[in-house]
């Protein structure tokens, strides 16, 4: 039984124009580092399926799903928000990205894989129940979470988000769902300019000042996340794995390094071992400078699959 590695070539066809930071090359940057470091030798590859409307509707309104599909252009781009465009392949890519989270959830819960990592785009954690934004169309990780809860009958799951930007979309969908504990760390003052005042009692949001670097990040995990996770005793962990808090990524300025992603992943693996039968699904979110993205994702996956 090997860890699952889920991706799809459709995720490369989505693009939002030259020089856009959320570029197709992100998929290859992650894949190449996993290959170079030999990590793919320890993983079973899967093609991401297309998420169904029923699966998407566990996280999004049916009206929004249909409206987004109707905006797909036959050529060029349609502007969704000031930072987010859709081309003729984007909707298919978004279905693959959400479908990857569903497949990973199925594989892990049924015991066909101990953990799953989804190297997919577009990312998802800024997608709200009825709105796209921040490069995101469907909230991939939340689609997986709701699938675990509603289709597999899990009672408690936790969402961990260490992207440099707060996962406002995940919070919008999950803030009133007591079955989910969401733990988010983000840089204060960045898009989406919220998170410091959690919308629900199930939200552990920790905003960090610019240039915090490793020590405050690790302290926030140790004093904020870990006690809450121990008290909640989740049956499965889901990770919004954004790597744009890296010191070489100019999308933010928290100053993290690969060792921080190794460290936080190790803490989560230990939580999962105690409470979740080791079950974790991780989905790629941010990370926009290709070299640190690839290196950070490899550091995360190495610990996630137990190859460290």
Order of helices and strands, N to C? EHHEHHEEHEHEHEEHEHEH
State the share of residues found in helices, binned by percent: 25-40%
- The general outline is globular
Class by SSE composition? alpha/beta
List keywords for this structure.
308 residues, alpha/beta, 39% helix
Task: Walk me through this protein's architecture.
The chain has helices at residues 10-13, 25-36, 53-56, 62-70, 90-109, 140-150, 168-174, 214-232, 258-275, 290-304; strands spanning 4-7, 44-47, 78-81, 84-86, 115-118, 157-161, 180-187, 203-208, 237-241, 280-284. The model has no long low-confidence stretch (mean pLDDT 97). It has ten helices and ten strands. It is of the alpha/beta class.
Quickly describe the structure.
The protein is built from ten helices and ten strands.
Please render the helix and strand layout as text.
Layout: E1 4-7, H1 10-13, H2 25-36, E2 44-47, H3 53-56, H4 62-70, E3 78-81, E4 84-86, H5 90-109, E5 115-118, H6 140-150, E6 157-161, H7 168-174, E7 180-187, E8 203-208, H8 214-232, E9 237-241, H9 258-275, E10 280-284, H10 290-304
Parallel strand pairs: 1-2, 1-5, 5-10, 6-7, 6-9, 7-8, 9-10
Antiparallel strand pairs: 3-4
């Amino acid at each position: 039984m090997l860890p699952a590695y889920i991706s799809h070539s459709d995720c490369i066809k989505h693009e939002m124009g030259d020089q856009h930071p959320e570029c197709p090359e992100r998929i290859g940057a992650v894949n190449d580092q996993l290959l170079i470091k030999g990590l793919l030798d320890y993983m079973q590859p899967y093609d991401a399926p297309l998420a169904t409307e029923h699966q998407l509707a566990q996280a999004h309104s049916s009206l929004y799903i249909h409206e987004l599909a109707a905006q797909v252009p036959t050529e060029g781009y349609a502007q969704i928000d000031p930072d987010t465009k859709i081309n003729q392949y984007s909707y298919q890519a978004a279905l693959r990205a959400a479908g990857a989270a569903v497949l990973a959830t199925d594989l892990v819960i049924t015991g066909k894989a101990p953990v799953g990592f989804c190297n997919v785009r577009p990312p998802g954690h800024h997608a709200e129940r009825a709105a796209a934004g921040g490069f995101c169309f469907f909230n991939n990780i939340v689609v997986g979470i709701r699938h675990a809860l509603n289709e597999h009958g899990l009672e408690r799951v936790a969402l961990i988000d260490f992207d440099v930007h707060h996962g406002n979309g995940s919070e919008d969908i999950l803030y009133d769902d007591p079955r989910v504990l969401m733990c988010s760390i983000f840089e204060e003052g960045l898009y989406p300019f919220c998170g410091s005042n959690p919308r629900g009692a199930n939200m552990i949001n920790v905003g960090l000042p610019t240039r915090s670097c490793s020590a405050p990040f690790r302290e926030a995990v140790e004093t904020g996340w870990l006690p809450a996770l121990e008290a909640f005793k989740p049956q499965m962990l889901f990770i919004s794995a954004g790597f744009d808090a890296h010191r070489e990524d100019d999308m933010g300025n928290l100053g993290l390094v690969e060792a921080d992603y190794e460290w936080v992943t190790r803490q989560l693996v230990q939580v999962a071992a105690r409470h979740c039968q080791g079950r974790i699904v991780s989905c790629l979110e941010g990370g926009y400078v290709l070299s640190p993205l690839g290196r950070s994702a490899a550091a995360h996956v190495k610990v996630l699959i137990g190859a460290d």
